[in-house]
Amino acid sequence: MTPAPLLVALPGHEAAAAALLGHGVHAPGELLVDRFPEGEPRLRFVTPVAGRRVDLFCSLARPEPQLAVLLLAALGARDMGATHVRLVAPYLPFLRQDRAFADGELVSARLFARLLSASVDSLVTVDPHLHRIHSLAEILAIPAQALTAAPLLAAHVAGLVRDPLVVGPDAESRQWAEAVAAALDAPCVVLAKDRRGLRDVHVAGEGLAAHRGRTPVLVDDIAGTGGTLVAAARCIAEAGLGPPLAAVTHCFLEGEGLAAVEAATIGLVATDSVAHPAGRIGLAPLLAAALRDPTEPG
Ligand code: R5P
Protein backbone atom coordinates (compact mmCIF):
# COMPACT_ATOMS: atom_id res chain seq x y z
CA MET A 1 0.00 0.00 0.00
CA THR A 2 1.29 3.49 -0.86
CA PRO A 3 2.15 5.34 2.35
CA ALA A 4 0.21 8.53 3.10
CA PRO A 5 1.94 11.74 2.02
CA LEU A 6 3.99 13.45 4.67
CA LEU A 7 2.68 16.81 5.84
CA VAL A 8 5.58 19.08 6.71
CA ALA A 9 4.77 22.43 8.32
CA LEU A 10 7.16 25.28 7.73
CA PRO A 11 7.93 27.46 10.77
CA GLY A 12 4.87 29.32 12.03
CA HIS A 13 2.41 26.95 10.37
CA GLU A 14 2.32 24.23 13.02
CA ALA A 15 -1.23 24.96 14.23
CA ALA A 16 -2.77 25.07 10.75
CA ALA A 17 -0.89 21.90 9.79
CA ALA A 18 -2.10 20.16 12.95
CA ALA A 19 -5.70 20.98 11.97
CA LEU A 20 -5.04 19.52 8.52
CA LEU A 21 -3.43 16.39 9.98
CA GLY A 22 -6.66 15.82 11.92
CA HIS A 23 -8.39 15.00 8.61
CA GLY A 24 -6.43 11.79 8.23
CA VAL A 25 -4.96 12.47 4.79
CA HIS A 26 -1.35 12.71 5.88
CA ALA A 27 1.32 11.24 8.07
CA PRO A 28 3.17 13.86 10.12
CA GLY A 29 6.58 14.92 8.88
CA GLU A 30 9.04 17.09 10.75
CA LEU A 31 11.40 19.71 9.41
CA LEU A 32 13.72 21.29 11.93
CA VAL A 33 14.69 24.88 11.17
CA ASP A 34 17.23 26.48 13.45
CA ARG A 35 19.40 29.51 12.88
CA PHE A 36 23.05 30.36 12.66
CA PRO A 37 24.00 33.27 14.92
CA GLU A 38 23.73 35.59 11.89
CA GLY A 39 20.12 34.51 11.45
CA GLU A 40 20.53 32.28 8.41
CA PRO A 41 18.29 29.22 8.51
CA ARG A 42 19.68 25.69 8.74
CA LEU A 43 17.22 22.95 7.78
CA ARG A 44 17.02 19.26 8.65
CA PHE A 45 14.31 16.75 7.76
CA VAL A 46 13.85 14.85 11.02
CA THR A 47 11.37 12.57 9.22
CA PRO A 48 13.06 10.82 6.27
CA VAL A 49 11.47 11.91 2.98
CA ALA A 50 13.11 9.39 0.60
CA GLY A 51 10.49 7.52 -1.37
CA ARG A 52 7.65 9.60 0.09
CA ARG A 53 5.30 12.19 -1.31
CA VAL A 54 5.78 15.39 0.67
CA ASP A 55 3.25 18.19 1.17
CA LEU A 56 4.99 21.35 2.35
CA PHE A 57 2.56 23.63 4.22
CA CYS A 58 3.46 27.30 4.03
CA SER A 59 0.88 30.08 3.75
CA LEU A 60 3.27 32.49 1.97
CA ALA A 61 1.24 35.37 3.37
CA ARG A 62 4.59 36.88 4.43
CA PRO A 63 6.75 35.74 1.51
CA GLU A 64 9.92 37.54 2.46
CA PRO A 65 10.78 35.58 5.58
CA GLN A 66 8.99 32.42 4.39
CA LEU A 67 10.14 31.96 0.82
CA ALA A 68 13.82 31.20 1.37
CA VAL A 69 13.07 28.40 3.84
CA LEU A 70 10.36 27.02 1.58
CA LEU A 71 12.60 26.88 -1.51
CA LEU A 72 15.43 25.23 0.43
CA ALA A 73 13.01 22.67 1.89
CA ALA A 74 11.43 21.91 -1.48
CA LEU A 75 14.69 21.46 -3.37
CA GLY A 76 16.23 19.59 -0.45
CA ALA A 77 13.31 17.15 -0.23
CA ARG A 78 13.70 16.34 -3.91
CA ASP A 79 17.45 15.82 -3.53
CA MET A 80 16.77 13.46 -0.64
CA GLY A 81 14.53 11.32 -2.82
CA ALA A 82 10.98 12.56 -2.18
CA THR A 83 8.85 11.22 -5.04
CA HIS A 84 6.69 14.35 -5.33
CA VAL A 85 6.87 17.68 -3.53
CA ARG A 86 3.58 19.54 -3.40
CA LEU A 87 3.29 23.05 -2.03
CA VAL A 88 0.18 23.74 0.04
CA ALA A 89 0.06 27.54 0.13
CA PRO A 90 -3.30 28.93 1.28
CA TYR A 91 -2.20 32.39 0.06
CA LEU A 92 -0.27 32.79 -3.16
CA PRO A 93 1.71 36.04 -3.15
CA PHE A 94 2.92 38.37 -5.92
CA LEU A 95 -0.16 37.89 -8.13
CA ARG A 96 -1.25 41.54 -7.95
CA GLN A 97 1.90 42.52 -9.82
CA ASP A 98 0.64 40.88 -13.01
CA ARG A 99 2.03 43.45 -15.41
CA ALA A 100 4.63 46.21 -15.50
CA PHE A 101 2.81 49.39 -14.47
CA ALA A 102 5.91 51.55 -15.06
CA ASP A 103 9.10 51.28 -17.11
CA GLY A 104 11.54 48.87 -15.52
CA GLU A 105 8.99 47.32 -13.17
CA LEU A 106 9.18 43.56 -12.81
CA VAL A 107 6.18 41.32 -13.35
CA SER A 108 6.54 39.48 -10.05
CA ALA A 109 3.62 37.14 -10.71
CA ARG A 110 5.39 35.55 -13.67
CA LEU A 111 8.83 35.54 -12.04
CA PHE A 112 7.47 33.92 -8.90
CA ALA A 113 5.62 31.34 -10.99
CA ARG A 114 8.91 30.42 -12.69
CA LEU A 115 10.61 30.06 -9.34
CA LEU A 116 7.85 27.79 -8.03
CA SER A 117 7.74 25.72 -11.21
CA ALA A 118 11.44 24.98 -10.81
CA SER A 119 11.15 24.10 -7.13
CA VAL A 120 8.00 22.04 -6.49
CA ASP A 121 6.07 19.44 -8.47
CA SER A 122 2.56 20.74 -7.88
CA LEU A 123 0.66 23.38 -5.96
CA VAL A 124 -2.59 23.78 -4.05
CA THR A 125 -3.76 27.26 -3.12
CA VAL A 126 -6.93 29.16 -2.22
CA ASP A 127 -8.59 32.06 -4.05
CA PRO A 128 -5.51 33.27 -5.92
CA HIS A 129 -5.83 36.88 -7.03
CA LEU A 130 -6.11 36.38 -10.79
CA HIS A 131 -6.96 39.46 -12.78
CA ARG A 132 -5.06 40.06 -16.01
CA ILE A 133 -3.68 36.55 -15.71
CA HIS A 134 -6.75 34.35 -15.98
CA SER A 135 -5.54 31.03 -14.65
CA LEU A 136 -2.50 29.69 -12.84
CA ALA A 137 -1.86 27.43 -15.84
CA GLU A 138 -0.95 30.56 -17.81
CA ILE A 139 2.09 31.19 -15.65
CA LEU A 140 2.98 27.89 -13.98
CA ALA A 141 4.70 24.94 -15.62
CA ILE A 142 3.43 22.57 -12.91
CA PRO A 143 -0.11 21.35 -12.12
CA ALA A 144 -1.97 23.65 -9.73
CA GLN A 145 -5.30 23.53 -7.95
CA ALA A 146 -6.97 26.84 -7.12
CA LEU A 147 -9.58 26.15 -4.45
CA THR A 148 -12.19 28.64 -3.35
CA ALA A 149 -13.10 29.47 0.22
CA ALA A 150 -16.54 30.74 -0.87
CA PRO A 151 -18.46 27.74 0.58
CA LEU A 152 -16.67 28.12 3.92
CA LEU A 153 -17.32 31.87 3.98
CA ALA A 154 -20.99 31.22 3.19
CA ALA A 155 -21.36 28.58 5.91
CA HIS A 156 -19.79 30.92 8.45
CA VAL A 157 -21.95 33.87 7.42
CA ALA A 158 -25.07 31.67 7.60
CA GLY A 159 -24.39 31.21 11.30
CA LEU A 160 -24.08 34.97 11.91
CA VAL A 161 -26.59 36.73 9.66
CA ARG A 162 -30.26 36.05 9.17
CA ASP A 163 -31.32 37.90 5.96
CA PRO A 164 -28.09 38.65 4.10
CA LEU A 165 -27.59 40.80 1.06
CA VAL A 166 -24.27 39.78 -0.46
CA VAL A 167 -22.32 42.75 -1.83
CA GLY A 168 -19.25 42.54 -4.04
CA PRO A 169 -17.30 45.81 -3.70
CA ASP A 170 -15.86 45.71 -7.22
CA ALA A 171 -16.08 43.85 -10.51
CA GLU A 172 -13.27 41.46 -9.58
CA SER A 173 -15.15 40.30 -6.50
CA ARG A 174 -18.15 39.13 -8.55
CA GLN A 175 -16.97 35.51 -8.71
CA TRP A 176 -16.76 35.21 -4.91
CA ALA A 177 -19.82 37.34 -4.13
CA GLU A 178 -22.04 35.34 -6.48
CA ALA A 179 -20.77 32.02 -5.15
CA VAL A 180 -21.45 33.07 -1.54
CA ALA A 181 -24.88 34.48 -2.48
CA ALA A 182 -25.82 31.24 -4.26
CA ALA A 183 -24.79 29.16 -1.25
CA LEU A 184 -26.84 31.42 1.05
CA ASP A 185 -29.76 31.67 -1.39
CA ALA A 186 -29.43 35.43 -0.96
CA PRO A 187 -29.56 38.36 -3.39
CA CYS A 188 -26.29 39.78 -4.64
CA VAL A 189 -25.28 43.27 -5.74
CA VAL A 190 -21.87 43.98 -7.28
CA LEU A 191 -20.59 47.56 -7.02
CA ALA A 192 -17.98 49.43 -9.08
CA LYS A 193 -14.66 50.60 -7.64
CA ASP A 194 -12.43 53.44 -8.69
CA ARG A 195 -9.06 53.35 -6.92
CA ARG A 196 -7.24 56.68 -7.30
CA GLY A 197 -4.56 55.99 -4.71
CA LEU A 198 -3.62 53.41 -2.11
CA ARG A 199 -6.27 54.62 0.32
CA ASP A 200 -8.20 56.89 -2.03
CA VAL A 201 -10.91 54.44 -3.03
CA HIS A 202 -14.38 55.23 -4.34
CA VAL A 203 -17.18 52.69 -4.62
CA ALA A 204 -20.53 53.30 -6.26
CA GLY A 205 -23.38 51.28 -7.63
CA GLU A 206 -27.08 50.74 -7.89
CA GLY A 207 -29.53 48.22 -6.58
CA LEU A 208 -28.73 48.37 -2.88
CA ALA A 209 -31.73 50.39 -1.70
CA ALA A 210 -34.17 47.72 -2.87
CA HIS A 211 -32.74 45.45 -0.17
CA ARG A 212 -33.14 47.73 2.87
CA GLY A 213 -33.83 45.59 5.93
CA ARG A 214 -31.32 42.94 4.93
CA THR A 215 -27.86 42.74 6.48
CA PRO A 216 -25.17 43.58 3.94
CA VAL A 217 -22.31 41.09 3.69
CA LEU A 218 -19.28 42.32 1.79
CA VAL A 219 -17.40 39.49 0.10
CA ASP A 220 -13.89 39.90 -1.30
CA ASP A 221 -10.74 37.89 -1.76
CA ILE A 222 -8.31 40.26 -0.03
CA ALA A 223 -8.52 43.02 2.56
CA GLY A 224 -5.26 44.97 2.43
CA THR A 225 -5.44 48.67 3.30
CA GLY A 226 -9.15 48.32 4.04
CA GLY A 227 -9.85 51.13 1.58
CA THR A 228 -12.16 48.94 -0.49
CA LEU A 229 -14.23 47.78 2.49
CA VAL A 230 -14.52 51.28 3.95
CA ALA A 231 -15.58 52.82 0.62
CA ALA A 232 -18.09 50.03 0.03
CA ALA A 233 -19.51 50.47 3.55
CA ARG A 234 -19.95 54.20 2.81
CA CYS A 235 -21.86 53.39 -0.38
CA ILE A 236 -24.02 50.88 1.51
CA ALA A 237 -24.80 53.44 4.23
CA GLU A 238 -25.74 56.06 1.63
CA ALA A 239 -28.27 53.56 0.24
CA GLY A 240 -29.90 53.33 3.68
CA LEU A 241 -28.64 49.92 4.79
CA GLY A 242 -26.96 49.10 8.09
CA PRO A 243 -23.28 48.44 8.74
CA PRO A 244 -21.95 45.42 6.85
CA LEU A 245 -20.22 42.26 7.85
CA ALA A 246 -17.15 41.68 5.69
CA ALA A 247 -16.23 38.09 4.81
CA VAL A 248 -12.87 37.88 3.07
CA THR A 249 -10.57 35.01 2.21
CA HIS A 250 -7.22 36.67 2.95
CA CYS A 251 -7.20 39.38 5.64
CA PHE A 252 -4.02 41.48 5.94
CA LEU A 253 -5.63 44.43 7.74
CA GLU A 254 -3.51 46.05 10.41
CA GLY A 255 -2.71 49.45 11.91
CA GLU A 256 -4.42 52.38 10.24
CA GLY A 257 -6.39 50.17 7.84
CA LEU A 258 -7.77 47.97 10.57
CA ALA A 259 -8.65 51.05 12.63
CA ALA A 260 -10.52 52.53 9.66
CA VAL A 261 -12.52 49.33 9.18
CA GLU A 262 -13.37 49.24 12.88
CA ALA A 263 -14.32 52.94 12.85
CA ALA A 264 -16.69 52.23 9.97
CA THR A 265 -18.29 49.53 12.23
CA ILE A 266 -17.64 46.83 9.66
CA GLY A 267 -17.73 43.37 11.22
CA LEU A 268 -14.93 41.17 9.96
CA VAL A 269 -14.45 37.45 9.41
CA ALA A 270 -11.75 35.77 7.35
CA THR A 271 -10.11 32.43 6.75
CA ASP A 272 -6.94 31.42 8.54
CA SER A 273 -4.84 31.78 5.36
CA VAL A 274 -3.20 34.76 7.09
CA ALA A 275 -2.48 34.80 10.82
CA HIS A 276 -4.98 37.48 11.91
CA PRO A 277 -7.48 37.88 14.76
CA ALA A 278 -10.34 37.83 12.21
CA GLY A 279 -9.07 34.56 10.70
CA ARG A 280 -11.58 32.32 12.44
CA ILE A 281 -12.62 30.25 9.42
CA GLY A 282 -10.31 27.25 9.22
CA LEU A 283 -9.32 26.15 5.72
CA ALA A 284 -8.36 22.64 6.84
CA PRO A 285 -11.57 20.89 5.63
CA LEU A 286 -11.27 22.49 2.18
CA LEU A 287 -7.57 21.67 1.86
CA ALA A 288 -8.02 18.13 3.16
CA ALA A 289 -10.72 17.34 0.60
CA ALA A 290 -8.47 18.54 -2.23
CA LEU A 291 -5.32 16.87 -0.94
CA ARG A 292 -7.13 13.58 -0.42
CA ASP A 293 -8.36 13.47 -4.03
CA PRO A 294 -6.43 10.61 -5.68
CA THR A 295 -7.07 12.02 -9.15
CA GLU A 296 -5.04 15.12 -8.38
CA PRO A 297 -1.32 15.19 -9.06
CA GLY A 298 0.90 14.26 -6.19
C1 R5P B 1 -8.71 43.99 -5.59
O1 R5P B 1 -8.87 43.74 -6.73
C2 R5P B 1 -8.94 42.98 -4.52
O2 R5P B 1 -9.94 42.08 -4.87
C3 R5P B 1 -9.31 43.66 -3.24
O3 R5P B 1 -10.51 44.39 -3.42
C4 R5P B 1 -8.23 44.59 -2.83
O4 R5P B 1 -7.01 43.92 -2.83
C5 R5P B 1 -8.51 45.16 -1.47
O5 R5P B 1 -7.47 46.01 -1.17
P1 R5P B 1 -7.62 47.17 -0.11
O6 R5P B 1 -8.07 46.56 1.17
O7 R5P B 1 -6.23 47.72 -0.04
O8 R5P B 1 -8.58 48.16 -0.65
List keywords for this structure.
alpha/beta, single chain, 6-stranded parallel β-sheet, 298 residues, 24% strand, binds ribose-5-phosphate, 5-stranded parallel β-sheet
Secondary structure elements and their pairing?
Blueprint: E1 6-9, H1 14-21, E2 27-29, E3 31-35, E4 41-45, E5 53-57, H2 63-79, E6 84-89, H3 108-117, E7 122-126, E8 144-147, H4 150-158, E9 164-168, H5 174-184, E10 188-190, E11 192-195, E12 201-204, E13 215-223, H6 227-238, E14 245-251, H7 255-263, E15 267-270, H8 284-292
Helix pairs in contact: 1-8, 4-5
Q: Radius of gyration from the CA trace?
A: 20 Å
Backbone shape: globular
Spans where pLDDT lies below 50 across 5 or more residues? none
Number of helices: 8
Q: Which structural class is indicated by helix and strand composition?
A: alpha/beta
**End-to-end distance, in Å?**
16 Å
Sequence of strands across the biggest β-sheet: 2-1-5-6-7-8
Largest sheet: 6 strands, parallel
Which molecules are bound in this entry?
Answer: ribose-5-phosphate
Helix content: 25-40%
Strand content: 15-25%
Question: Average pLDDT value?
Answer: 96
Give helix and strand order, one letter per element, not per position. EHEEEEHEHEEHEHEEEEHEHEH
Number of strands: 15
